[in-house]
Task: inverse folding
C-alpha cells in the first residue's frame, strides 16, 4: 500500500496551491481569508445559513469523465476537503480593473447590491449555476439562490438580473420606456442646479419598467457581448484520481482513505473518529459548541460509500453520496419512464423532501449517512427511511478474518435515544437500501418549517399504507354515527366497496427525541377499512402517540400535534383520490392536497425622472459602490489588512439573566497560548459607562442584568483563540429573580424612564365613551425582530501617540462612538477619531449598540498599545446586541354603526431590556403613530417602557412606529369584523384629510394619503381581486385567499430636537474632481450615492467627478447618527449649502470666462485666482421638537404616506402561505434617485414582511420553559428565519406617487428608509382575511404578530384542532 500524501494540492482561481502545514479543523473560508488574503468571500454566520461565503468548487468525475461544478459554503467546508479540486472565489471571476463577469455586471446594473456584504456569495451562487447549467431556465435560476440571504434588497432586482441568463427568455431590443429611461439617465455635465434653490423639485415624466421588458432587453445585450473568458479547469486535475491523504495538525488529524478496507481500519484504530463529508454537523459543533475532534476521516474517495444504483425492487444509495447527486439520480429514475410511477412512490417522497432540504450549497456536500447517523429528531429524510423500513448496511474491519465484514439493520432498529444510534464501535455506514412500492402501497412525505426554503422542519413526516381491496360496505347510518362519536366533520358517506389497511408505517420527525414511528396509530390502522371514520380515530390517536407539552424542547406542542393530524388528513385525501373513492367528498376536500406552485416572479416599477439631461438629481443611477461590491473588492472592517502586531478580542459575557458577581477569575484564559490579556471594569481608566443615560456599564462591575451582558474582554493573537479563551474565564454568581417578559414587568411595575409612563391625548375619552354606539376591546402582541445585518458588529481600535485612538467601525453613529471611547479612556474627544467606510447593513442595530464593541476594543488597545480588532460571531451578536422591541397593546375603541371612529384608548407596553438605550424615544414614536392615518376625535395613548432582564433592545428600522401602527390596525380590523364591514371600507371612511390635526396636535399639510390609497386600489385592481378571492374560497375548503389594503403615515424627524442637524465638507481639487465628506454613514441605503448626486447637481458636474471616501469624525464633527430616515434630508442640505458657497465664489469668474468655459478650466483658473475651493456646510431642520411634558410642539418635519395591497393564499392545514401579489404606492416627493428609493421600498417591505409573518425571537421565558432563563434560542440563521428568495411575492409592483413635491426637504424629496416597512402589514391582514374565510366561527379573532405558520394554523380552529382538544380561543405562545 502506497504511503498517504501529507500535503494538500489544489487550485485557487487557476493558481496551484501546495500546502502541508494546514490545520485539519481549518475551514476553507479561514484559509482563503487568513492565509491567502482573499477577503471577497465573507463570513456571515459560520453555519452555512446565509450564503455570504459561497464559492465554486470544481472536480473531475472519473465516472463521467466530466468536470463537476458545485457551490459550497466555505465557512463549513474543511480546507482539507478540496484536495485535488479547483476553488474559484469572487476574485477569480472578474474585477473592476480587468472587467466584470456578466453575472457581476448584471447584478450591479439591475440595482441588486445595496450594502454589498451578501453580494459576493450571491454572485458566486449565480456564477456556479451558470457553469453547471449552460442553458438555465428562469425556474432553475430562481432556485439557484436557495442558500443565500440578503437583508437589504428584497431580492427582486437580483432575481431580475439572474433571469437575463435564462434561455427560455426571448431577447428583444429596448422597449420605449427602457429607451426613455436610458436617455433621461445620461450623466449631467456643466450646468449648476443651485440657482433653483435646495428645496426645488422638477416636473418629471413617468417611466414604467416591468420585469420582462428589462430582462428581455438585457438579454439581447448580453447575447451581443463578447463572452468573458472563464478560468479553465486546470489540466493537471483532468483525470485526477484521489489518493490516500493524511494531514497531521497540532490539534487534529485528517484521513482520506480510498478503499473501504482502509476506512474500516482507520475507524477500528480510532473508534471515536468523526466521519466528515460535508462538515455540516461537525463544523457547527466545533464552532459553536467547541467540540474537539482529534481524528477526522473523509470517506468521499471510497467507491462503495459513493455508489448509487437501482435494482428491480430497490434503490441503493451510498452513505457518502452527496444529496445533490442522489437528487439528480432519483429525478432521472422518476422522470425516465423505465420504472412505473406506482413503484417510485418512495423515490418521489425522497425528492419531495430533498427539494426543501436545506440549500443547494449544503446538498452539494451533505450526505445521506450524515443525515442518518446524526439522528436529528427533525431530520427530513429519516421519516422516509422509517416509513419504508429501509435497510442500513454497516461495515467494520474483522481482525480475525483480516477483512471487511458487513451487518444489515432495518431503520426501525437504528435510532436508540436522543442523538444515539445503533452503530457498533469501529463500524461505518456504507449504504441505505430503500424498497420500491407495489400498486396498493402508498407513500407520501410532508414537511412544515417556519420558512419553505433552507429551513429545518418543525414537523416532518412520511406516511405509508398498504391496502387490499375489500368487499365490505359502510352504510350512511353507520358512518354518521361513527362521525359523531369521533367529532369528525360529517359529510356524505362511503357506500361503495372499500379497502382494508394491511399495514401502516407512519414516520415522523420533530415530535420525539428521535425520528420515530407512530406505533399506536399504526397498530390501530391495521385491519381497518380505509374511510373517514378510521381517519378521524387515527387523528385522535396521533395525539396519544406524541404526548407533547409546554416543556417539550422546541415548544409549539399544540401545533406540532395538529400538524401530525393535518399530514394524516392530507395523506388520506391523496390516497382516496388516487383510488377514486367517494368522489363528492374528495371534490369538497381536494384542496387539502394541492401544493404551492411557484411560477417565476415578476413585477414593475413606475416613477418619474428628471427630464433635464444635464442634472443628476432624480436619475435612477446605480449605487456608486455597486461594481466593487459585486466583484468583492469593497472592504468591510474584517477585510482590512491586519495592522502590525494586530490582536483580536472576544467578549466575556454573562450566562445568567440577573445576578450579583461574586468573583471573576481570568487565569484559565491567561494561561492559554497566544492570549495577551483580560480586561474588565477595574481596567477602565475613565468612566465605566456607555450610552447617554448613565445606566449602562461598559463592563459589568458588581452585577449582571441579562444573559450576554459584557463583563470583560479577552485579547489574543487570533480571533478563534480569543473566543476560546473567553470561555475559560470563570465567573461566580449569586443569582437574583429575573423579569423576562412584558407580563412579568407589568406585574412587578418595572419601568424605565417616567414611572407614570408617557401620555398623548386629544379630546376626552369619557365623552367619547358616551357618544360611541359600539365599543370593542382587545390585546395585540407584536414580537421583536433581529436586525440580521449580514456583517456582524465589528470594530478596530488603533492606538497612536499622545493618547490618540483611531476607531474603524461598522457603526451608524461615529460621534457617540468617539464620545464614549474618550470617556472610557479618560482623554478629550479630540484625541479619538472614528472612521466608517461602509457597513454590511445596519437597520438601527448599529446606532448605539455598536459603541460597546468599539469601546471594548479601545480599552484593550490602550492597555497593550497594540491594534485590536473585535468581530462578533453571529450567535454572540444576536445574544448581546439587542433587537426590535416587542410590544403589547391594549386597545379600547368606540365607533358608530356607520363605521365612523369616535374614540381610541390605548396602553402600549414595550420590552426595553435591562437599560434605557433608545427605548424611551422608541415608545414616543409608537405613541405618535397609534393613529396611523385615521381621524379619531378622542384619543388617549399611554405608553410604559418595561425593564426586563434581557439585552437592551434598541433602534430598528421604524423605531417603534411599526409596533404602534400595528396595534392601531389590529383595532381597525376588530372594528370591521364586529360590524361585518369590509376592512377597506372602514379604513377609507376614516382617512385623515388635509389640514386636520394629529392626536398630538400637528397639522397635516401636503397630506397625500387619500391619493396613495385611491391609486393603490386602482393599480392593484383590488375590488376585482377581492371578488375572485371570494369565489376561490367558496370552491376550496383547505386553501383560502385573502386580500388587504393597508395605508401608512410615518413622521420624519428625530424625536430628539438636537439631533436634527447635519454637516458636510466639500473640497474641489485643481483637476476639477470633487471630494465630499458628510456626517452620514453608508450601510447600503445609497446615501453616499444621493449625496454625490446632490453635489453634482449643485456644482453642475458629472457624478463621476464627485467622490465620497468615508465618513470620519475629524472631517465632519458632532454628527447625528444615520437614522430616523433623516440622513438625506440633513446631510443633503448640508452638502448643498457647502456647494452653494463654492458656486457663489465661482460665479463672477464663470461670468468673466464666458459660457463655453469647461469645469476643469474654471477650477484651474479659480485656483490661480486664489478662490477658496473648500467649504463646510451645515443644516438644522426648522420647526421640530415635541415636548411630552407640555404636550406641545411639532413632532415631525413632515410625514411620508403610502398604501400597499397584498393578496395571499394560505394552506389552512399547515399554516403555510404564499404571497400572490403586492402593489405599493409610495409618496417619496420628488425622488432624488428612483432606483435607490424603489430598492429601499422593496427592502423595507420585505423586512416588514419578516417582522409580521416569519421572524420570531424565542427567549427563555415563562412561555418557553424548555430553555434556560434569559437565553436566546433563535441565535442564528438555523433557528431564526428572515425572508428568503422563495418568499418574494409572485408579483410585486411599485409605484412612486406622481407630482407630489415635498417643500420641506432637499430638492422636494422625502425620506424613504423607514416609512415603507409598515406597509408589509398588508400581508399580515391578507392572511387574517384568508383565515376569516376558513374559520367556522365568524367575527373577530386574535392573531398576534408575527403570523407564523403556527399562529396561522392554530387560528383556523377546524375539526382537527377540536379532535385534539385545542381550545377555540387558543393563542400561541410568544416572547413578548
Result:
Amino acid at each position: 500500500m502506497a504511503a498517504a500524501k501529507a500535503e494538500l494540492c489544489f487550485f485557487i482561481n487557476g493558481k496551484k496551491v501546495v500546502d502541508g502545514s494546514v490545520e485539519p479543523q481549518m475551514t476553507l473560508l479561514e484559509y482563503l481569508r487568513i492565509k491567502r488574503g482573499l477577503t471577497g468571500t465573507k463570513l456571515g454566520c459560520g453555519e452555512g445559513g446565509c450564503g455570504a461565503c459561497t464559492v465554486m468548487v470544481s472536480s473531475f468525475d472519473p465516472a463521467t469523465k466530466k468536470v463537476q461544478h458545485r457551490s459550497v459554503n466555505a465557512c463549513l467546508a474543511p480546507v482539507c476537503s478540496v484536495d485535488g479540486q479547483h476553488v474559484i472565489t469572487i476574485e477569480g471571476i472578474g474585477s473592476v480593473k480587468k472587467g466584470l463577469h456578466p453575472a457581476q455586471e448584471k447584478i450591479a446594473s439591475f440595482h441588486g447590491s445595496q450594502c454589498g456584504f451578501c453580494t459576493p456569495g450571491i454572485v458566486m451562487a449565480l456564477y456556479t449555476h451558470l457553469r453547471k447549467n449552460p442553458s438555465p431556465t428562469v425556474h432553475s435560476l430562481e432556485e439557484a439562490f436557495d442558500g443565500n440571504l440578503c437583508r437589504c434588497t428584497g431580492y427582486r432586482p437580483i432575481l431580475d438580473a439572474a433571469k437575463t441568463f435564462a434561455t427560455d427568455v426571448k431577447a428583444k431590443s429596448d422597449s420605449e420606456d427602457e429607451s426613455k429611461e436610458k436617455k433621461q439617465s445620461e450623466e449631467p455635465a456643466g450646468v449648476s442646479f443651485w440657482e433653483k434653490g435646495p428645496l426645488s423639485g422638477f416636473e418629471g415624466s413617468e417611466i414604467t419598467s416591468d420585469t420582462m421588458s428589462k430582462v428581455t432587453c438585457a438579454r439581447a445585450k448580453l447575447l451581443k457581448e463578447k463572452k468573458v473568458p472563464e478560468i479553465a479547469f486546470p489540466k493537471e486535475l483532468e483525470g485526477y484520481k484521489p489518493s490516500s491523504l493524511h494531514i497531521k495538525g497540532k490539534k487534529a488529524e485528517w484521513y482520506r482513505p480510498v478503499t473501504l478496507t482502509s476506512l474500516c481500519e482507520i475507524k477500528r484504530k480510532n473508534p471515536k473518529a468523526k466521519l466528515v463529508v460535508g462538515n455540516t454537523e461537525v463544523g457547527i459543533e466545533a464552532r459553536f459548541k467547541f467540540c474537539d475532534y482529534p481524528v477526522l476521516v473523509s470517506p468521499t474517495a471510497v467507491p462503495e460509500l459513493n455508489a448509487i444504483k437501482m435494482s428491480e425492487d430497490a434503490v441503493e444509495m451510498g452513505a457518502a453520496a452527496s444529496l445533490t447527486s442522489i437528487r439528480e439520480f432519483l429525478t432521472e429514475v422518476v422522470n425516465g419512464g423505465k420504472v412505473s410511477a406506482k413503484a417510485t412512490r418512495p423515490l418521489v417522497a425522497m425528492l419531495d423532501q430533498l427539494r426543501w432540504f436545506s440549500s443547494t450549497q449544503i446538498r452539494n456536500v451533505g450526505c445521506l449517512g450524515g443525515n442518518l447517523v446524526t439522528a436529528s429528531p427533525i431530520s427530513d429524510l429519516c421519516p422516509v427511511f422509517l416509513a419504508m423500513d429501509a435497510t442500513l448496511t454497516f461495515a467494520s474491519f474483522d481482525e480475525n478474518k483480516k477483512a471487511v465484514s458487513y451487518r444489515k439493520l432495518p431503520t426501525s432498529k437504528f435510532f436508540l435515544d436522543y442523538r444515539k444510534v445503533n452503530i457498533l464501535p469501529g463500524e461505518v455506514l456504507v449504504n441505505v437500501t430503500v424498497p420500491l412500492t407495489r400498486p396498493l402501497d402508498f407513500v407520501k412525505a410532508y414537511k412544515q418549517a417556519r420558512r419553505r426554503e433552507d429551513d429545518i422542519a418543525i414537523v416532518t413526516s412520511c406516511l405509508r399504507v398498504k391496502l387490499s381491496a375489500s368487499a365490505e360496505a359502510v352504510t350512511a347510518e353507520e358512518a354518521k354515527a361513527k362521525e359523531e362519536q369521533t367529532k369528525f366533520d360529517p359529510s356524505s358517506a362511503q357506500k361503495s366497496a372499500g379497502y382494508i389497511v394491511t399495514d401502516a408505517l407512519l414516520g415522523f420527525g420533530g415530535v420525539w427525541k428521535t425520528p420515530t414511528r407512530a406505533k399506536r396509530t399504526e397498530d390501530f390502522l391495521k385491519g381497518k377499512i380505509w374511510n373517514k371514520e378510521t381517519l378521524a380515530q387515527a387523528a385522535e390517536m396521533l395525539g396519544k402517540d406524541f404526548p407533547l407539552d409546554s416543556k417539550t424542547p422546541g415548544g409549539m406542542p399544540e401545533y406540532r400535534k395538529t400538524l401530525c393530524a393535518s399530514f394524516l388528513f392530507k395523506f388520506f385525501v391523496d390516497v382516496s383520490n388516487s383510488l377514486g373513492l367517494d368522489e363528492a367528498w374528495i371534490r369538497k376536500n381536494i384542496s387539502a392536497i394541492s401544493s404551492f406552485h411557484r411560477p417565476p416572479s415578476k413585477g414593475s416599477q413606475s416613477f418619474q425622472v428628471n427630464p433635464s439631461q444635464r442634472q443628476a438629481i432624480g436619475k435612477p443611477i446605480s449605487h456608486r459602490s455597486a461594481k466593487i461590491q459585486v466583484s468583492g473588492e469593497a472592504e468591510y472592517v474584517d477585510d482590512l489588512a491586519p495592522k502590525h502586531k494586530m490582536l483580536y478580542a472576544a467578549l466575556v459575557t454573562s450566562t445568567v439573566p440577573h445576578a450579583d458577581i461574586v468573583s471573576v477569575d481570568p487565569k484559565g484564559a491567561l494561561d492559554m497560548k497566544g492570549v495577551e490579556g483580560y480586561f474588565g471594569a477595574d481596567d477602565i481608566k475613565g468612566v465605566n459607562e456607555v450610552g447617554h443615560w448613565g445606566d449602562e456599564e461598559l463592563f459589568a462591575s458588581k452585577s449582571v442584568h441579562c444573559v450576554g451582558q459584557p463583563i470583560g474582554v479577552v485579547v489574543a493573537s487570533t480571533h478563534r483563540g480569543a473566543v476560546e479563551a473567553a470561555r475559560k474565564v470563570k465567573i461566580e454568581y449569586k443569582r437574583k429573580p429575573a423579569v423576562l417578559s412584558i407580563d412579568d414587568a407589568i406585574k412587578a411595575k418595572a419601568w424605565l424612564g417616567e414611572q407614570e409612563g408617557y401620555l398623548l391625548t386629544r379630546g376626552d375619552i369619557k365623552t367619547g365613551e358616551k357618544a360611541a354606539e359600539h365599543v370593542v376591546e382587545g390585546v395585540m402582541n407584536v414580537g421583536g425582530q433581529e436586525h440580521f445585518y449580514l456583517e456582524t458588529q465589528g470594530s478596530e481600535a488603533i492606538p497612536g501617540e499622545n493618547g490618540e485612538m483611531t476607531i474603524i467601525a461598522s457603526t451608524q453613529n461615529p460621534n457617540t462612538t468617539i464620545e464614549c471611547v474618550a470617556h472610557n479612556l479618560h482623554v478629550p474627544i479630540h484625541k479619538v477619531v472614528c472612521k466608517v467606510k461602509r457597513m454590511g447593513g445596519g437597520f438601527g442595530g448599529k446606532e448605539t449598540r455598536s459603541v460597546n464593541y468599539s469601546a471594548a476594543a479601545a480599552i484593550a488597545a490602550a492597555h497593550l498599545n497594540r491594534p485590536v480588532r473585535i468581530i462578533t460571531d453571529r450567535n454572540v451578536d444576536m445574544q448581546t446586541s439587542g433587537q426590535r422591541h416587542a410590544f403589547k397593546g391594549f386597545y379600547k375603541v368606540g365607533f358608530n354603526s356607520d363605521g365612523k371612529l369616535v374614540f381610541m384608548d390605548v396602553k402600549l407596553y414595550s420590552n426595553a431590556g435591562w437599560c434605557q438605550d433608545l427605548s424611551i424615544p422608541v415608545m414616543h414614536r409608537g405613541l405618535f403613530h397609534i393613529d396611523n392615518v385615521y381621524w379619531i376625535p378622542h384619543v388617549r395613548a399611554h405608553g410604559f417602557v418595561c425593564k426586563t432582564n434581557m439585552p437592551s433592545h434598541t433602534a430598528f428600522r421604524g423605531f417603534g412606529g411599526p409596533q404602534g401602527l400595528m396595534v392601531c390596525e389590529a383595532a381597525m380590523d376588530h372594528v370591521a369584523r364586529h360590524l361585518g364591514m369590509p376592512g377597506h371600507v372602514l379604513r377609507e371612511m376614516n382617512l385623515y384629510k388635509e389640514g386636520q390635526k394629529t392626536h398630538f396636535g400637528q397639522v397635516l399639510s401636503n397630506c397625500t394619503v387619500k391619493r396613495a390609497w385611491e391609486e393603490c386600489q386602482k393599480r392593484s385592481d383590488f375590488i376585482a381581486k377581492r371578488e375572485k378571492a371570494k369565489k376561490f374560497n367558496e370552491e376550496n375548503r383547505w386553501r383560502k385567499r385573502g386580500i388587504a389594503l393597508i395605508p401608512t403615515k410615518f413622521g420624519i424627524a428625530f424625536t430628539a430636537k438636537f439631533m436634527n442637524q447635519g454637516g458636510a465638507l466639500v473640497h474641489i481639487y485643481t483637476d476639477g474632481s470633487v471630494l465630499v465628506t458628510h456626517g452620514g454613514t453608508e450601510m447600503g441605503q445609497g446615501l453616499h450615492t444621493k449625496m454625490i448626486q446632490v453635489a453634482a447637481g449643485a456644482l453642475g458636474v458629472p457624478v463621476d467627478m464627485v467622490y465620497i471616501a468615508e465618513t470620519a469624525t475629524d472631517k465632519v464633527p458632532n454628527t447625528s447618527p444615520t437614522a430616523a430616515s433623516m440622513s438625506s434630508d440633513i446631510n443633503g442640505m448640508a452638502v448643498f449649502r457647502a456647494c452653494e458657497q463654492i458656486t457663489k465664489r465661482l460665479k463672477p469668474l464663470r461670468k468673466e470666462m464666458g459660457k463655453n468655459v469647461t469645469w476643469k478650466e474654471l477650477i484651474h483658473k479659480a485656483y490661480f485666482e486664489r478662490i477658496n475651493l473648500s467649504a463646510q456646510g451645515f443644516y438644522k431642520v426648522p420647526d421640530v421638537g415635541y415636548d411630552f411634558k407640555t404636550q406641545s410642539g411639532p413632532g415631525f418635519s413632515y410625514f411620508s404616506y403610502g398604501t400597499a395591497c397584498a393578496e395571499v393564499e394560505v394552506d389552512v392545514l399547515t399554516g403555510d402561505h404564499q404571497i400572490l401579489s403586492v402593489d405599493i404606492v409610495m409618496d417619496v416627493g420628488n425622488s432624488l434617485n428612483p432606483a435607490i428609493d424603489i430598492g429601499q421600498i422593496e427592502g423595507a417591505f420585505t423586512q416588514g414582511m419578516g417582522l409580521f409573518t416569519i421572524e420570531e425571537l424565542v427567549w427563555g421565558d415563562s412561555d418557553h420553559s424548555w430553555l434556560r432563563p434569559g437565553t436566546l434560542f433563535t441565535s442564528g440563521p438555523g433557528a431564526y428565519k428572515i425572508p428568503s428568495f422563495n418568499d418574494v411575492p409572485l408579483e410585486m409592483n411599485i409605484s412612486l406617487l406622481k407630482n407630489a413635491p415635498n417643500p420641506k426637504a432637499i430638492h422636494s424629496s422625502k425620506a424613504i428608509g423607514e416609512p415603507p416597512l409598515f406597509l408589509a402589514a398588508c400581508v399580515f391582514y391578507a392572511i387574517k382575511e384568508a383565515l376569516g374565510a376558513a374559520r367556522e366561527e365568524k367575527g373577530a379573532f386574535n392573531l398576534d404578530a408575527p403570523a407564523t405558520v403556527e399562529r396561522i394554523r392554530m387560528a383556523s380552529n377546524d375539526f382537527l384542532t377540536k379532535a385534539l382538544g385545542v381550545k377555540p380561543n387558543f393563542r400561541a405562545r410568544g416572547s413578548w
User: Anything to note?
Assistant: The chain has a mean pLDDT of 93. Residues 1127-1153 form the longest helix (27 residues). DSSP finds 40 helices and 47 strands in the chain.
